[in-house]
TrEMBL record, chains A, B:
<dbReference type="GO" id="GO:0009229">
    <property type="term" value="P:thiamine diphosphate biosynthetic process"/>
</dbReference>
<feature type="binding site">
    <location>
        <position position="49"/>
    </location>
    <ligand>
        <name>Mg(2+) 2</name>
    </ligand>
</feature>
<dbReference type="InterPro" id="IPR006283">
    <property type="entry name" value="ThiL-like"/>
</dbReference>
<dbReference type="InterPro" id="IPR016188">
    <property type="entry name" value="PurM-like_N"/>
</dbReference>
<feature type="binding site">
    <location>
        <position position="77"/>
    </location>
    <ligand>
        <name>Mg(2+) 3</name>
    </ligand>
</feature>
<dbReference type="InterPro" id="IPR010918">
    <property type="entry name" value="PurM-like_C_dom"/>
</dbReference>
<keyword id="KW-0067">ATP-binding</keyword>
<feature type="binding site">
    <location>
        <position position="148"/>
    </location>
    <ligand>
        <name>ATP</name>
    </ligand>
</feature>
<feature type="binding site">
    <location>
        <position position="327"/>
    </location>
    <ligand>
        <name>substrate</name>
    </ligand>
</feature>
<feature type="binding site">
    <location>
        <position position="47"/>
    </location>
    <ligand>
        <name>Mg(2+) 4</name>
    </ligand>
</feature>
<feature type="binding site">
    <location>
        <position position="56"/>
    </location>
    <ligand>
        <name>substrate</name>
    </ligand>
</feature>
<feature type="binding site">
    <location>
        <position position="226"/>
    </location>
    <ligand>
        <name>Mg(2+) 3</name>
    </ligand>
</feature>
<dbReference type="Pfam" id="PF02769">
    <property type="entry name" value="AIRS_C"/>
</dbReference>
<protein>
    <recommendedName>
        <fullName>Thiamine-monophosphate kinase</fullName>
        <ecNumber>2.7.4.16</ecNumber>
    </recommendedName>
</protein>
<dbReference type="GO" id="GO:0005524">
    <property type="term" value="F:ATP binding"/>
</dbReference>
<keyword id="KW-0479">Metal-binding</keyword>
<feature type="binding site">
    <location>
        <position position="77"/>
    </location>
    <ligand>
        <name>Mg(2+) 4</name>
    </ligand>
</feature>
Length: 334, 334
């Protein structure tokens, strides 16, 4: 059955999970435009990310994961600015109308949307190669957003979690597919016994934006960025924007699977694997104690990995590891 | 030469035409997110449209036209709500980095952006089939936006210009390509002698959103929609949303090329050709005179084509013409 565009939107994208009642959404889906009343005294924070089959996700992934992930990677940029998520739009390109796929996709997106109460307010569906652009919108108090610019020599550099987990998950997923096995969806991962394997698959298929860090870092972090293109690439952007460099301590980088994996691979995954939706941020030495107390009280583990230097470039790592410079969409992994 | 994503954005999308200084844009391109200070007392109006090569535009179109058009079709949705355009984002998917194409594309987008002072505040570039999602943002006074819902029996139905012109332009463009001729860009159209041919090619390759109608329709139109999917389809959406019908006068529908073309084709183009970025709107009989005086003073021609009825459905046209129900992305033209 070939569904029309309007019926498709109505059937799959108008669930209460995707359309929670929000005071700022004055008019949601269904007209030429959505109408939003941005709360007084708030700045609007905007980010868009495209996920393309075969480039940003495995086309064989469960549709539920593809929907979840497309929203998660965009939301992660809001978290990296310290913004509270509010609403989003979806531009979806589909080769054909596959109702089972659409049902899983919209459900995955809805499951994540519901966690943060974000509303789908509009979008566009077109026929074409499988790909989706999700634009997310959130709010911050004016001046409170963490930018890339603003890191000062002497500031400490932190990351918010283990790195390389998602790269391991991607490798594991490819191995499963090669062995003709289906990839698990969230329900399967939730019922499976906890293991390094479910852990890495979850990191790759169901990343979670780190909004839980906002109260801990708020008014303490000087700069922040999410580590979606790999630590070296994204830290590099932050340092360039700030006109500074960094001295890293390789023994402090929280590598996933450190005890079990091949050391150089583990290090490579952590530095340049990508798809780890953790934050990298800087904090002045004066704020360090306050930050660490707040993190401990919240039960959140933070990892100091180095210090900002006035000399540009990243130092402290073996030369070998520095060739792992992260992902560039038109150059591939280098 | 294979450009990196960051260099690509810097080289082609950071011109002053695309980055005009705007008081509401607190932080534009280059960080994880853009930061916007929505003017106090204004509602934000949001719309996203995807343009895909081979579906929404001819891949052989001049890159300049593709860039212009991708922005124009999104802006037209803002015009249809009565919103002043402000800023936009671009999610661009490219099969390869072709610098000449990118230069033309970004220039076309910049030329239209400059006309309205809209700023490009962010985006994403990915490798994939040629396609672009443009999300536009504008402002309205709360309550002043024209919606699809709100047409009342007895209201007059208007369109803002000749219909079918763009469909003729598309046919002409295809004929030129079949004859191995290149399609003209804006500079060529501007220097060519005025003719029905340049007129229709301009309508298809370089549509202009009808922001000039806002002061004329403001506080006078009850509902409005842009005619991008064809008059019958879009008027149909407006009538359904309002729970009403319409009685149209076929002799009053302003068909492009009425004197020269084949009558049934001319009528088919006007009713269902699509890509005419004119507005269709309703006005109560009490406001009619006021509207027409205002239009005349502004030198803008408006066309009354029928009246809203309590009985649902569209009547007054020959049965034959009613089969032309407009474009559906997953059904094709029906």
């Amino acid at each position: 059955m070939l569904l029309g565009e309007f019926e498709l939107i109505h059937r799959y994208f108008s669930s209460p999970k995707l359309q929670p009642s929000r005071r700022d959404v004055y008019l949601g889906m269904g007209d030429d435009c959505a109408l939003i009343s941005v709360p007084e005294g708030k700045q609007l924070v905007v980010s868009v990310d495209t996920s393309t089959a075969g480039v940003h996700f495995l086309p064989e992934s469960p549709a539920h994961s593809i929907g979840w992930r497309a929203l998660a990677v965009s939301l992660s940029d809001l978290a990296a600015m310290g913004a509270q998520p509010a609403w989003f739009t979806l531009a979806l390109s589909l080769p054909e109308v596959d109702e089972e796929w659409l049902s899983g996709f919209s459900q995955g997106m809805a499951d994540l949307a519901q966690e943060y109460g974000v509303a789908l307010v509009g979008g566009d569906t077109t026929q074409g190669a499988l790909s989706m652009s999700v634009q997310v919108h959130g709010y911050v108090t004016p001046g409170a957003a963490w930018k890339r610019k603003g890191a000062q020599p002497g500031d400490l550099i932190y990351v918010s979690g283990e790195l390389g987990k998602s790269a391991c998950g991607l490798r594991k997923a490819k191995a499963l597919l090669e062995a003709q096995q289906a990839l698990p969806d969230l329900a399967m991962l939730n019922t499976a016994e906890a293991s390094a394997e479910t852990d890495m698959l979850r990191a790759y298929l169901y990343p979670k934006p780190r909004f839980d860090l906002i109260p801990i870092l708020s008014s303490r972090a000087a700069t922040a960025i999410d580590i979606s293109d790999g630590l070296l690439a994204d830290l590099g952007h932050m340092l360039s924007a700030s006109g500074v460099g960094a001295n890293l301590d390789p023994t402090r980088i929280p590598c996933f699977n450190k005890e079990h994996g091949d050391t150089s691979q583990v290090f490579q995954d952590a530095l340049a694997g990508g798809d780890d939706y953790e934050l990298c941020f800087t904090v002045s030495p004066q704020r360090r104690l306050e930050l660490e107390v707040s993190a401990e009280q919240s039960g959140v583990r933070l990892y100091p990995i180095g210090v900002v230097t006035s000399q540009q470039g990243i130092r402290g790592l073996h030369e070998q590891s520095l060739t792992a410079s992260g992902f560039d969409h038109f150059k591939g992994n280098t």
